[in-house]
Amino acid sequence: MSDIARNIRLYREQKNLSQQELAVKMRVGTKKIELYESGELTPDTETMLRLCTVLDLPASEILEKEYHSNKKTTLDNEIATLIEEMGMEKALFLLRSFKEISEADILKMLNVSKR
Question: Where does the HTH cro/C1-type domain lie (predicted)?
């Protein structure tokens, strides 16, 4: 499976769309979506633009290499673990708090906690 095929499926699933729902929104047959996601058919430029419009993504997201998807999956897993261990409320508080702190201060805190 190509990176483009993998990314089409990944972003469709992230938008909670079935292949049939995506096909309807793009005004193509479900079989076309199946072919795009299996890598048997690569969308032409016009189709890629419609796909990106429906999925609300820049084309670069779909065209990016597999490692980009893997990074995102790793981050999603880390966030899920954080929520599982701390609970949603504490995890959100922590993430929002870190947004307000400079990178230098975060590094200082991490160094202090290692001692």
Answer: 8-62
Contact criterion met (CB below 8 Å) for 57 and 11: yes
DSSP state at residue 87: -
**Degrees, nearest 5: CA angle 10-90-114:** 95
pTM above 0.85, yes or no: no
Task: List Cα–Cα distances, 115 to 62, 106, 111, in angstroms.
Answer: 43, 15, 7
**Sign of torsion over alpha carbons 65, 75, 81, 89:** negative
pLDDT digits (tens, 9 = 90+) for 19-53: 999 999 999 999 999 999 999 999 988 899 899 99
Q: Are 1 and 38 in contact (CB under 8 A)?
A: yes
Structure-token pair, residue 6: 């993998």
Cα 49 from Cα 57, distance rounded (Å):
9
In the chain, the number of structural domains is: 2
Q: 60 and 72: one domain?
A: no
Domain assignment of residue 8, given as a range:
3-64
